[in-house]
């Protein structure tokens, strides 16, 4: 097991390697659609300032004592400045190799927001894309997540 | 933070309290419908041998390196002897108080299976219920989960 820096998980006091607390890390990612944009497939991605580099859905680790819905609202605000409204649970993505650092389990929500994104926190940039203009370098398994989202989009046009 | 026994989370080597690895624990629960039964709302519950006591959906902790779908198949087999086929993602339940021991985030799947359940592993008993015969003592937030499931059931009758 590795900690969040990629090394073996060590006790912060004695430095010994700890294998007892071997659980995947729960995370949340959010597919944000801006209601001010005419394209129904618009989505906000952020450019990561930390590895793995590239564009990614806004998201992050679930804090102890926080629900996944609270994480979604908090991370969207921190990374894009947007106040989101969750519209649906998109899926749970947990393949062990989906995050090159360690095993994470992400709960993905789709959401809507008004206004314009403004990069904050771990995001160097926040930009709006559509299906046809997705960037080449997308981190994690977020390209797969987005493809699954775009595939289901016709049924959510009414949102 | 507490470990899986309910005490403060301690390093197994030096015994000091560890707060660095403060993440909720990812778990999985499975709503198993037996195809051999005529009632479309039949569901397999297990009687827990460990606290919190009571009846509960089969389920357990996600191992490091395991997908949530793999956890569902493994735990269903261990606790009920059934080979399940996952039919849908029911939801993600993550309210901090849903588990009295510590903060868990559960991914709930609905699934179908043939044959009859046989209690194993942490399950003292495995029994089939329907909506009207649910037991009084249901652990965790599994009554809420089941109510949400029963509420959606008409649309999944065709499965």
Description:
- 2 copies of one chain form a homodimer.
- With 159 residues, the first copy, chain A, is α+β, with helices and mostly antiparallel strands.
- Chain A is built from 2 helices and 7 strands.
- Chain A has helices at 68-80, 142-152, and strands at residues 25-34, 43-48, 55-56, 59-61, 84-93, 104-113, 123-129.
- In chain A, the strands form 2 sheets. In chain A, strands 4-1-6-5 form a 4-stranded mixed beta sheet, with helices on both faces.
- In chain A, β2 (43-48) and β3 form a beta hairpin.
- The longest helix of chain A is centred in the middle third of the chain and has 13 residues, at 68-80.
- The model of chain A is unreliable at 1-6 (pLDDT under 50).
Span between N and C termini of chain A?
41 Å
Return Rg of chain A in Å. Answer: 16 Å
Alpha-beta content class of chain A = alpha+beta
Largest Cβ-defined interface: A-B, 34 and 34 residues
Query: What coarse outline of chain A follows from CA principal-axis ratios?
Result: globular
Largest sheet of chain A: 4 strands, mixed
Question: Secondary structure elements and their pairing?
Answer:
The structure is a homodimer of 159-residue chains.
Chain A lengths: L24 E10 L8 E6 L6 E2 L2 E3 L6 H13 L3 E10 L10 E10 L9 E7 L12 H11 L7
Parallel strand pairs in A: 1-6
Antiparallel strand pairs in A: 1-4, 2-3, 2-7, 5-6
Summarize the structure.
The structure is a homodimer of 159-residue chains. Chain A has 159 residues and is α+β, with helices and mostly antiparallel strands. Chain A is 15% helix and 30% strand.
């Amino acid at each position: 097991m590795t900690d969040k820096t990629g090394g073996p998980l060590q006790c912060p006091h004695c430095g010994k390697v700890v294998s007892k607390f071997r659980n995947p890390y729960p995370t949340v990612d959010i597919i944000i659609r801006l209601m001010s944009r005419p394209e129904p497939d618009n989505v906000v991605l952020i450019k990561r300032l930390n590895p793995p580099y590239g564009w990614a859905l806004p998201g992050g680790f679930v804090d102890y004592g926080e629900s996944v819905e609270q994480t979604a609202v908090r991370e969207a605000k921190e990374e894009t400045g947007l106040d989101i409204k969750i519209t649906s649970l998109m899926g749970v993505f947990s393949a062990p190799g989906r995050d090159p650092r360690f095993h994470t389990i992400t709960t993905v929500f789709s959401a809507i927001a008004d206004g314009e994104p403004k990069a904050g926190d771990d995001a160097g940039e926040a930009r709006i894309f559509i299906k046809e203009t997705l960037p080449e370098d997308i981190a994690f398994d977020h390209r797969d997540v987005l493809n699954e989202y775009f595939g289901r989009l016709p049924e959510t046009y009414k949102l």
